[in-house]
């Protein structure tokens, strides 16, 4: 199901949802979708943040994609409540400056993290080194972050050295 430019929706048993070009305030209602296992939110060019409560009741969410949020500067710390999340994909969030330290700590089931074209992302959170289930990290077109993740010498290397599959490119 795809919902486009809809300010209010509630379908509690919905397993998968794509939300395209909606305002950030309407994303609050995703917290009512407790059966959701896959959420793809994209194409919001105005929001600088996501509602803190949007992830609070999504205990079954396994896949989250956040893309094309041109002005998004931060992600909510409520990411920490996504204990079942296995795959997190963040791309084309040009203004994203950091991943929330408190939000990352709770992602204990996370196996794959993909970060692409988040040019303002400067560093990875310390909590990443404690995510023992994380097996794949892909960082592409994030020049500052790629430099910090250089094997053995990068400032963030100690945070990712335990991850078996690393794919890091600044292009």
Automatic annotation (TrEMBL):
Q: What is this protein called?
A: Disease resistance protein RGA1
Q: What's an example Gene Ontology biological process for this entry? A: defense response
Per UniProt, the keywords (alphabetical) are:
Plant defense, Repeat
InterPro entries, per the entry: LRR_dom_sf, LRR_R13L4/SHOC2-like
Residue ranges annotated for the Disease resistance R13L4/SHOC-2-like LRR domain, each copy included: 21-169
